[in-house]
Specification:
heterotrimer, A mainly alpha (227), B alpha/beta (234), C mainly alpha (236), B: 234 residues, alpha/beta, Rossmann fold, 4-stranded antiparallel β-sheet, C: 236 residues, mainly alpha, 7 helices, 0% strand, globular, binds adenosine-5'-triphosphate, binds magnesium ion, ABC_transptr_haem_export_CcmA (chain B), nucleotide-binding (chain B)
């Protein structure tokens, strides 16, 4: 288990170093989420007070759409020089590839969120009154679930030629329960309603995270096996 | 000892390898030659654990290569058609990354040594995106040698290399062989085959049609004639 | 070798056709008309039985996906695919009948009723599954990938149902009542008999379509194999 973790960190560090050098993916993700916010501010007039109600939903819309860009890259980038095969022949457990990619994607998406959510609040002139700790906890829990299943399906979709198109089709139906939970819990925290309701949504999301993490962790080796 | 016992591999509904058997002892060097599409690379992929055989078994030092035996893979160094390198990283970073995955000790030292050996040490801090094909092939060879495997599977290692690099590579292979490392080489370049290897297998349409040791005295022409006769099935 | 399977097919056919007519009779003539909704309630029989088959087909897909991970065979691969294709048809019918029911019962085409939404998401998962199967590559590879996706999809379905139900009760508690007046509540014994008979008939239809689909797919496979054999012969 320790070795799996060490290998995973090696792979994640490699991905993040690559990203740090080029800043291509993260830059694109941030620009893209800003553009989505911009488009939404045309679609829903931000000066209208009732628009505040869609803020929790918007947080997740921008996370998912910008996250999809990063997820698509994470396995496509391994196809250059067929380096994924290099990882497959290495003496490592296939799960460590999964874990490494999850960590790298999680860091990437979290960084993007740290920029895009304040931008969203800024452009929609939204004053944050909720409990920050709970808010962060909810965002993190839902993001972990999103990244876990997203990374897994990105590995699956990377086998297809049109993987950028395939990934959202595979991912979005599976994300629906998580997103219901995420949007509801975020709404409760932002509108300072009873925290107990948010906790029960948080539990649902945590259960989802755990379940899918376990399933993906064990099924990942089947994705890495050649035919 | 690497043993393949009666391997058959079917992909889709096409038989790629039929009843393929081979035993490779330490210090042996075997060339695998044959026409395009004969199944040579498929055989390497099976031996490297990238594919599972449809039937038959692959034993490495008496242990079967399966999913759960990924630590056994440390013994195998596989050089494929592709380089498996990350083009955004520098040569040294590439070696460092693979060295970590293969749990190589003092990576820095060995990495530098190998980069010198393949003649890339001046370029060690340049991302390999800008490298020429031959330079990438050199680095790919360094990557395989870095992990100190007991079995080297080299799939057309001479492609894209210049004369100097070819003799350098042959030297490196010979060196490893003397240390008791077993070598399997796929090549379409018979000159190198005769120089490097002692035994040769001819694969044609997934079957071994010839298996004999190379007579170094006889030179290139008789070898070519013999190959053509074997492949055309006369 | 062909004989027993043809016999089963004929038996299914012989059973299916009268069962269809009997269920139509039961639905439209024999069973009493519901007091509140009137004749439009009849669609409920089709709705429930197709929904049942939609989930059954999905369960079958999941079952063959698990088997396929253990040992992929062409047989299992084909069965999972056919079941998914039939599943798409039945989920679509379920959605349509559900919408018609919603229109006549609550005067709205769509409600965020947990079961209905689950069926909608089920449809999306089915389609995604079929997309995975349409990837290019050898069938062994696709079998593995689609099996993995099928299993993940299967795990997801109950969670979707739970999440939506929860969401619904928190949003507008007991607007339509939880389940009771939709499936049960005042179901009279006559209606129940009709419903059960209908479910049986549609399940029979599913079995029949399954067998036919598998047969056709296998024929296709035989033809493809023969074709590649001919090409190989010509090439050598
Ligand atoms: N993933 C695959 N799917 C389908 N067929 C494959 C696959 N990989 C290889 N083949 C088939 O297997 C046969 C052998 O391929 P292989 O790559 O082993 O040939 P090779 O001997 O290495 O040829 P070359 O000298 O060109 O490298 C080919 O006919 C090829 O079409
Ligand atoms: Mg080859």
């Amino acid at each position: 288990m320790k070795i799996i973790l060490a290998d995973a960190l090696t792979i994640a560090a490699k991905d993040l170093r690559n990203e740090l050098k080029s800043k291509q993916t993260s830059g694109m993700m941030i620009i893209f989420s800003s553009l989505v916010i911009l488009i939404f501010s045309f679609a829903f007039d931000p000066t209208n007070n009732t628009v505040k109600a869609i803020i929790p939903g918007l947080i997740w819309v921008i996370t998912i759409f910008s996250g999809l860009l990063g997820l698509n890259r994470s396995f496509i980038s391994e196809q250059e020089n067929d380096s994924l095969t290099g990882l497959k022949v290495a003496p490592i457990d296939p799960s460590s590839i999964f874990l490494g990619k999850v960590v790298a994607n999680l860091v990437l998406v979290t960084i993007v969120q740290m920029l895009s959510i304040p931008i969203l609040f800024l452009l929609f002139d939204y004053k944050f009154h909720g409990d920050l700790i709970w808010f962060l906890l909810i965002v993190l829990t839902a993001t972990i679930g999103f990244i876990v299943i997203g990374t897994f399906l990105a590995a699956l979709a990377a086998n297809a030629k049109n993987s950028e198109m395939l990934l959202p089709v595979l991912l979005l139906p599976l994300l629906s329960p998580l997103m219901i939970g995420a949007v509801q819990a975020t709404k409760i925290v932002l509108e300072q309603e009873g925290i107990t309701d948010a906790i029960s949504w948080l539990q649902l999301m945590a259960a989802y995270d755990l379940l899918f993490f376990a399933a993906c962790f064990f099924l990942f080796e089947y994705l890495m096996e050649g035919s | 000892m690497l043993e393949l016992k009666e391997i058959t591999k079917i992909i889709g509904d096409k038989i790629i390898l039929r009843n393929f058997s081979l035993a490779l002892a330490p210090g042996e060097s075997v060339a695998v030659i044959g026409p395009n599409g004969a199944g040579k690379s498929t055989f390497f992929k099976l031996a490297a654990g990238l594919m599972q055989p449809t039937s038959g078994e692959i034993l490495l030092n008496g242990e079967q290569i399966k999913k759960k035996t990924h630590l056994l893979k440390k013994r195998i160094g596989y050089l494929g058609h592709e380089s498996f390198l990350y083009s955004a990283l520098t040569p040294l970073e590439n070696l460092r990354f693979y060295g970590k995955l293969y749990k190589v000790k003092n990576i820095e030292e060995k990495g530098m040594e190998l980069l010198k050996a393949v003649g890339l040490h001046y370029f060690k801090d340049i991302p390999i995106r800008s490298f020429s094909r031959g330079m990438i092939q050199r680095l790919a060879i360094a990557r395989v040698l870095l992990t100190e495997p007991d079995f080297l599977l080299l799939d057309e290692p001479h492609t894209g290399l210049d004369q100097e690099a070819v003799s350098l590579l042959n030297l490196l292979i010979k060196e490893r062989q003397e240390k008791g490392i077993a070598i399997l080489l796929i090549s379409h370049d018979f000159e190198q085959v005769i120089q490097v290897c002692e035994r040769v297998l001819i694969l044609n349409k997934g079957r071994v049609v010839e298996d004999k040791s190379i007579d170094h005295q006889r030179g290139l022409m008789p070898f070519k004639n013999w190959y053509e006769a074997a492949v055309s099935g006369k | 070798m062909k004989q027993p399977s043809a016999f089963v097919d004929r038996m299914l056919y012989i059973l299916l056709v009268p069962a269809m007519f009997v269920s139509l009779y039961l639905i439209f003539i024999w069973s009493p008309i519901e007091k509140q909704m009137g004749a439009s309630q009849k669609i409920f029989y089709f709705h429930v039985s197709t929904a049942w088959v939609a989930f059954l087909a999905f369960f079958v897909v999941g079952y063959y996906c698990v088997l396929m991970l253990k040992r992929p065979t062409e047989d299992r691969f084909i069965k999972a695919g056919i079941s998914a294709e039939i599943g798409v048809v039945f989920t679509t019918i379920t959605l349509l009948t559900g919408m018609i029911w919603g229109k006549s019962a609550w005067n709205t085409w769509w409600t965020w009723e947990p079961r209905l939404v689950t069926v909608l998401i089920l449809l999306f998962i089915y389609i995604a599954y079929l997309f995975v199967r349409k990837m290019e590559g050898t069938w062994e590879k696709i079998a593995k990938l689609s099996a993995v996706f099928g299993i993940i999809g299967c795990i997801n379905v109950p969670i979707v149902f739970m999440a939506i139900r929860w969401w619904n009760t928190k949003l507008h508690p007991v607007v339509f009542g939880e389940g009771k007046n939709q499936s049960g509540g005042g179901v009279e014994p006559d209606m129940l008999v009709t419903l059960l008979f209908c479910i049986g008939t549609i399940t029979l239809l599913y079995l029949f379509m399954m067998r036919k689909g598998i047969e056709i797919e296998k024929m296709r496979l035989t033809v493809r194999k023969a074709k590649s054999r001919v090409i190989e012969k010509l090439a050598s």
